[in-house]
Amino acid sequence: MPRDYTGTYQLVHQENFEEYLRALDINVALRKLVCLLKPVKEVEQTGDHMIIRTITTLRNYVMEFDVGVEFEENLGPIDGRTCRTTVRWDGERLVCTQIGEKQDRGWTHWIEGRFLHLEMHAEGAVAKQVFQKKD
Questions:
Q1: pLDDT by residue (tens digit) across 27-72?
Q2: Using CA atoms, how far apart are residues 115 and 9, in angstroms rounded to an integer?
Q3: DSSP assignment letter at 113
């Protein structure tokens, strides 16, 4: 049985996020602003059905999916694009592949102790974020 990701997590660390946003063609002013945000992730998991909410003071993004089922994802709040998205289990990791305008786009989530890790990639850029679970 895969790990239960359910919980609320606060960003505590990020690396190379601005380069990742640059690879998504986010303009410089918005990149600078987004890099200052401290998002909260709320994850609801019921079996293979997931809802991941990313909440910031600027804008929120909700991703709802069934693991292993491809769907059309509207990334409008992030970069204005749509893509074909599939999230699958790789052991206890959630691995997302996003097929669309940007090459090699996707992400991986995994949990270590009380920390939710997120590695995002697009167009050769790789960013990492770490979130700590709230009590």
A1: 999 899 999 999 999 999 999 999 999 999 988 999 999 999 999 9
A2: 8
A3: T
> Taking CA 122 as the corner, what is the angle to CA 53 and CA 88, rounded to the nearest 5 degrees?
55
Residue 11 tokens read as 């960003």
Taking the whole predicted model, whether its pTM rises above 0.90 is answered as yes
Backbone angles phi, psi at 25, to 5 degrees: 65, 30
Nearest by Cα to 52 from 66, 40, 42, 67: 42
Contact 11, 130 (CB under 8 A): yes
34: nearest Cα among 133, 127, 134: 127
Residue 1 above 70 pLDDT?
A: no
7-133: CATH class: mainly beta
Q: Which residues pair with 95 in a beta bridge?
A: 88, 108
Residue position matching structure tokens 């946003």: 21
